[in-house]
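> run fold Mannosyltransferase
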Amino acid sequence: MQSRKRDTSWKLSYLVAICLRLTIVLTSTSFIHPDEHFQNTEIAIADVFNRSNRQTRTWEWDPLRISDRTIGGGPVRSIVPVWMTSHLGLHVLKLLHNIGMIVSTASLISGTLLLSIQPHQEARFLLPLVFPLTTLCSQSISKSRSSKFRRTFWFAHLMHSAITVVLFGYLHQGGLQSALEVLPPNTETLLSYKTFDIPSSLITSTQLRNVTNLRGATEETLAKTLCEIVSMDEERRIVLLAPRWALSPSLEHRFKLLFSSAIPHLDLDRLDEIFHAGRHRSGIGLYSIHQQNMKASELCH
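> ok
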């Protein structure tokens, strides 16, 4: 298997060398002589990429010498400088390669730098670095002679990807989208508590006029906000979206549960609250707030 890959790499390199040679031959402005032109590429590569200090040069590459003085750096029988027929294209190739390395390195460093200075750092902000890091590591891994090391690396990478998909694709803020899909169409006021801010694109209610995001406020702030809303004379449909584990049982019993997600609503900042709440209250809940009952409760007095 390794010999087959080595043969493929060798054939590809040889094909590139042939194409480069033909390009130089067809675009050259100097005289055409097979030996000099087919030796031209190897010498130019050695000059541009510093491949060898012992490159054998034919007399064609020797500068014109008069007495003890050296005139020019081109071949004796041509007035066209050597760098115009061979070196120029290789210098462009080298420049593009260096630019590619600079862009790759800059994208890696800038991403790490910009994400690291954020005041609220979480693992999900580092996800854009997974692909470039994998690409950079895979190049060195592919050259490693240890097959065990390669297998270990790719196994760890696949496990990391699988865990990340489950964690951030299903558990982290899990059930939020499912709850919004069953939001009553006549909802006019929506409160979200201890969740991410609700994107307006996910809200399907056409009558919704007010969305209040309480984020990580205390339960006292939640109760105060509800009392301010129900104190208005206007009757309206009020719905609360909150993790069930974030509400104390005494407060949750005052609301009518419309929906409870089967998928746990994981908040990495409040793992202790989730574990203490139990399995049946690990999801996110959608609650209907009865305006008159809430107004008459002791919470609003």
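The chain has three domains: 2-94, 123-171, 176-300.
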